[in-house]
Specification:
With 58 residues, the protein is an all-alpha fold. Helix content is 83%, strand content 0%.
């Protein structure tokens, strides 16, 4: 009996984990969220470019 209860609890845990993963994926595909992520990546790229020394091609 104890084993059956433990298995039930485990299955409930994984159901909640799966539902949370789907909810998170749906949030990540919202246009506003994607826009903010791209904006942040572009800002990071600009910061890295400013940190690197410029090379002369002459």
């Amino acid at each position: 009996m104890r084993r059956a209860v433990k298995m039930w609890e485990t299955s409930e845990y994984w159901k909640h984990r799966a539902a949370g993963a789907l909810r998170h994926a749906k949030y990540k595909e919202l246009p506003a969220v994607r826009h903010r992520r791209i904006k942040g990546l572009e800002a990071d790229k600009r910061k890295q470019g400013a940190r690197l020394p410029r090379r002369n091609s002459s």
